[in-house]
Amino acid sequence: MYLRTKKVAVITGATRGIGNAVALQLAKDGYAIVGCGTMDPARAEGHMKEIADTSPEFLYVQADVSREEDRRNLIDRTLERFGRIDVLVNNAGVGSLVRTNILDVTEESLDRVFGINLKGYLFLGQLAAKQMIKQVEAGDPAPKPVIINMSSISAYTLSVMRGEYCMSKAAIAMLTKLLAFALADYGINVYEIRPGNILSDMTLPVKEHFDKLIADGLHPLRRWGTGEDCAKAVSAICKGYLPYTTGSAIDVDGGFHMKWID
């Protein structure tokens, strides 16, 4: 297939929430979009319609990023269709199976959370990075590729009833730095984005609780964040607006990361 744009972005967890907003923003920015999710294609079609209508080219790949064969299939199908990868947004993630004290976390829940939230990021990042290195070493004139890992304020903030989730996000922070160091000589920058309280279908069950906390000053910007807030940060990175940064964590959290005393 003739590729009308030389920019290809792969976004995991793209069927809803932050990933969906990121995919739409990068489609508006002119990227060919490879959206990945666990939904079957028929169900995903409705979730991805606006992206498919916006992107110069679009491909949906059903994949569970915790599975090696699915990760390889995602990369293989991307290269088969478009021949390149310019952006990888590791966004797919899950929470704890059951909210419980760290003393009662089960191996099943830990394995599930780390399999998707960490193992998926690491090994998909490896596959994408090796393709990106090939492009750089071939003298590709396009802007250097980037990798963006979607993390959370839970990377440094205790959520005491979902410890395995917090540990996975803290691990993503270190993974970002390790990848950034490994890829620096190739000019491939790596970033971590730390969303705060983002309104989505995943946070709707606790919306009423957090509505009051936010109104009472949980963070200085007294509103919920949106997927679009995160997507704009991704867009800025992909446009090359932060060229002298790598391994950096970008807080998209309404100022939650600031510590203050009245």
From TrEMBL:
Question: Which segments of the protein form a coiled coil according to its record?
Answer: none
Keywords for this entry?
Oxidoreductase
The organism's place on the tree of life at top rank? Bacteria
GO BP terms in the entry: bile acid metabolic process; fatty acid biosynthetic process
Q: Name one GO molecular function term.
A: quinone binding
Q: Which NCBIfam families match?
A: PRK12745.1
Family statement: Belongs to the short-chain dehydrogenases/reductases (SDR) family.
What protein name applies here?
A: 3-ketoacyl-ACP reductase
Species, as recorded: Anaerotruncus massiliensis
- Taxonomic placement: Bacteria, Bacillati, Bacillota, Clostridia, Eubacteriales
